[in-house]
Amino acid sequence: MTKNNSKKTYQLVKDLTSTKQGRTKTMQDKDGRCLTDEQDILKRWSEYCSELYNYRATGDPEVLNVPPTTDNDNYPILREEVEAAVKSLKKGKTAGADNVPAELVQAGGEAMITASGKIIAEEQAGFRPGRSTTEQIFNLRILCEKYLQHQQDLYHVFIDFKKAFDRVWHAALWASMKHFNINAILIRMTQNLYDKATSAVYLNNSIGDWFRTTVGVREGCVLSHTLFNIFLERIMTDALNDHEGTVSIGGRNITNLRFATDIDGLAGREEELADLMERLNKTSTAFGMQINAEKTKLMTSNTNGFSTDTRVNGEKPDCVNRFKYMGAIIADEGSKPGILTRIAQATAALAKLKTIWNDRNIALSSKIRLMRSLVMSIFLYACEAWTLTADTERRIQAMEMRGHISNEEVRNRTRQAIGPHEDLLTTVKRRKLKWYGHITRSSGLAKTIMQGTVQGGRRRGKQKKRREDNVPESTGMTLGAAMRKTERREEWRELVARSSVAPQRSTKTTG
Fold first, then answer.
1. CATH number for the domain whose boundaries are 61-77+109-181+215-331
2. Could you tell me the sign of the dihedral formed by the alpha carbons of 116, 80, 170, 127, in that order?
3. Are 475 and 495 in contact (CB under 8 A)?
4. What pTM, to 2 d.p., does this model score?
5. Is 364 helix (H, G, I), strand (E, B) or coil?
6. When you count CB atoms within 10 A of the terminal residue's CB, does the N or C end of the chain come out lower?
7. Is the separation of the CB atoms in 500 and 383 below 8 Å?
8. What is the C-alpha R_g of the chain?
């Protein structure tokens, strides 16, 4: 920790806290016979992976027919693009069989990412600069909150593809790149990269037989996520062609929210959802993909549930009342189930690190840093999308009080050792206000959802707390005044610092 080597620090923590589990040295072959010899196991893994990445795609050949484009083939790949791609790679990743670090061989990635950014729909937030899981969780929660409060039905289908990244049909991928008018040189370069590539299984310092791959994007390649986004965008574009969605907010229709393969199809009516599922199933099949009906889930804010028998490939997906979307619980009860889940997960992480907390050889400052990175980060994940109520605020404070030191003298010594710090509730409120300012100053989908309105009236009586209600509560300003304040960054920053401070808890002492 003194040298700020986070990689070694986390490995040390893992070694001290992980339960030792022996690696299974047996596996079954195709006929169910048990294999114990290491070479036999390696051959079985090689056989499995070879079959997986040589899966015969049974897509529709029609999707390969793309009209000729007017693209100029003479755009060269610039040296600056290669340098930018190399610099953008993460450091310290394991090299391949040639022992050459990926940082030395990757080229052209920056150009591909730039090109794909112009064709990927705004509903797709996965693997895109400036986008995050927090934003997509925020979008979905606010959309659900507004539809529920305006008494409008909202139907969801959370789609799961079977072996999504491993089933990308190469021929359809090149056709999709051509369809979106991506530079022909980039297409040929990427195609050559895949046509000449071979793979092998690495197990216990042994390498299995080499084999070629005909489907799937390469694991660990910086281009893979971009290529998958292009492939999925083509599927979604074809599926939603002429589809009139009824989910609307701020005058904008929203048919889906995506983060890579995490897809939430949205509909305002049950028959509309069935049509959306049929379109996605038909189009994905044409591109060699298959929806996993067992893992695909349906959810609705309609208290009567689903009345029709909606199926995918003859199978009926499960209907649920809450769903874990990118690590966050989405439910009609609002943010409370998600907050309680985060409290439980953080508490479990805290208990798991008991060996670290009890070790007197580890400095207190190091323990504090580990607490923030390994425990508090779990609790604070996507807290920007929470709607705080009096009940959830009490629960957050109660969670922090579990480690409260009752001895005043010890508590004062601890405060002097760790220096000034803010409590959890203050951190949550500060992050929420900073996020509000960030979205208000932006011009994307999140701003439309946050500030847009939904048709329909609210029910009589006391209304449920909305996330936007937290802003006036924290700042003492109206939403309009707070919105104008966000444009003046320095003033907004000062306001956030003053407004996010949580009420102090009273501490009983004995004299």
1. 3.30.70.270
2. negative
3. yes
4. 0.84
5. helix
6. C
7. no
8. 26
